[in-house]
Design a protein that fits this description.
five-stranded mixed sheet; alpha/beta; RNA binding; VC0802-like
């Protein structure tokens, strides 16, 4: 097992930055975060690269929220608390825990919003996130920065592909159904957010996972997207989709998120290396034509 990275090293400037811990272990059900593939035997270096990148993006999007947490908590409206309780209940059902109506108002130990987890798996690492981070929005914001043609500074060397995980569950079909309803509902069934019928696809990645067959996962998710009581008529399109449902299966954990069609076209399936290579090639071609 690799030695844990020492987050306390560095100069005085690094001491001022918010520290993010590295832990080791399995992924619990209900976990949100980001999978990252990387060069073989460079999992630690990839995590270090992502730490800096994620830290900067977190501060850009959310600032230093430490001093504002208590004030924001007191300012929440009853409706917002009700929505949060509903999400907590659904997540705890996925975890198999009993839900307490007052759990959102209880005193809890504050945890870091970003924690890197050593999965003890070649070529992949995981960053566990907590509120206020929304993984799919967080990663999209990073990819928008990296795809900017004006930004030619290569920020990473070992990181390859990023995959956001909205929530996750145990590797059981009944838990997968609960997870899918929770994750895909806002994207496919909410009349306030869904304005048309979408073309969609499902992409499943399995690592050290043989609990549920790939096609069983895909068929179940397609059935849930096109449930009988839905007012929409979404259709499967494996090439020209508007929405893509990403499913990441690792050991006893299944994670899921929904991304837009530009995931494949504009952002190279969130492959950081391919995105950089594409930008450098366009820049070189432009210089050669001059």
């Amino acid at each position: 097992m690799s030695e844990k990275r020492n987050c306390n090293s560095g100069n005085a400037n690094s001491q001022k930055r918010k520290k993010f811990k590295v832990s080791s272990g399995f992924l619990d059900p209900g976990t949100s975060g980001v999978y990252a593939t990387c060069s073989r035997r460079h999992e630690r270096q990839a995590a270090q690269e992502l730490q800096l990148l994620f830290e900067e993006k977190f501060l850009e999007l959310y600032g230093d929220i430490k001093d504002e947490e208590d004030e924001n908590e007191n300012d929440k409206k009853e409706e917002e608390l009700s929505i949060e309780d509903q999400i907590k209940k659904e997540l705890q059902e996925i975890k198999g825990e009993e839900f307490s109506k007052h759990s959102s108002t209880g005193e809890t130990k504050k945890k870091d919003p970003i924690t890197f987890i050593d999965l003890n798996c070649e070529c992949v690492t995981f960053c566990k996130t907590r509120r206020p981070i929304v993984p799919e929005e967080f990663v999209l914001s990073i990819m928008e920065d990296l795809a900017d043609p004006k930004n030619m500074v290569k920020r990473t060397r070992y990181v390859q592909k990023l995959t956001p995980i909205t929530y996750s569950c145990n590797a059981k079909m009944e838990q997968l159904i609960k997870l899918a309803n929770l994750v895909i509902g806002p994207h496919f069934h909410d009349p306030l957010k869904v304005k048309k019928d979408y073309k969609f696809a499902v992409e499943v990645t399995r690592r050290n996972f043989n609990t549920i067959e790939r096609m069983d996962i895909i068929n179940e998710i397609v059935k849930l997207v096109n449930k009988e009581d839905s007012e929409f008529n979404h259709t499967v399109d494996l090439k020209n989709y508007d929405k893509l449902i990403l499913v990441e299966c690792f050991k006893s954990n299944i994670g899921m998120c929904v991304v837009n069609g530009d995931y494949k076209t504009k952002y190279r399936k969130y492959n950081v290396q391919q995105l950089y290579e594409s930008k450098f090639k366009k820049e070189n071609d432009k210089n050669e034509k001059k």
